[in-house]
């Protein structure tokens, strides 16, 4: 008997409260949760910049992932590029991991950002040095490590860059 492979149909969408029920059911294993925030925690964080963009990763129109795009004071800790945006809290619900969703979402990222933030020319992120799988994924998808380290609240982070134009 041949198993059918579920086709991944990934889209990126700006956050809408209609996604709250699915985001409330979001789950990450303990190892992953040490490196990122849960979506609703991030959305409701009191220190989050008012102009942060919250992005939901959809698979077949179901919210399965999340990340934020931030600028301002937090971005300045990672880059001096005035046209950069900081990607934070990238995660995929553990129930949907291993299906290529993270990879597909990151491939969509440059076009998506260009569409909603046309002045941005670079994506910057910090990934914990202990999070080897994430570092490898980002590098495979074009992010570059210039050997810059940011000492964050959860330990040393590699600063990775993705040029958009």
Q: Number of DSSP strands? A: 7
**Count, helices:** 6
Helix/strand structural class: alpha+beta
CATH superfamily: Gcn5-related N-acetyltransferase (GNAT)
Strand content: 25-35%
* pLDDT < 50 stretches: 1-5
Helix content: 25-40%
Record the strand order, biggest sheet: 1-2-3-4-5-7-6
- Please report the distance between the alpha carbons of the first and last residues: 47 Å
Instruction: Give me the Rg, rounded.
Output: 15 Å
Q: What are the secondary-structure elements, in order, as H or E?
A: EHHHEEHEHEHEE
What profile does the largest beta sheet have?
Answer: 7 strands, mixed
CATH architecture: 3-Layer(aba) Sandwich
- Provide the CATH topology: Aminopeptidase
Number of domains: 1
Describe the structure.
The protein has 165 residues and is of the alpha+beta class. 26% of the residues lie in helices and 33% in strands. It has 6 helices and 7 strands. The chain has helices at 20-24, 30-33, 39-43, 73-76, 101-116, 132-140, and strands at residues 10-14, 53-59, 62-70, 84-92, 122-128, 144-152, 155-163.
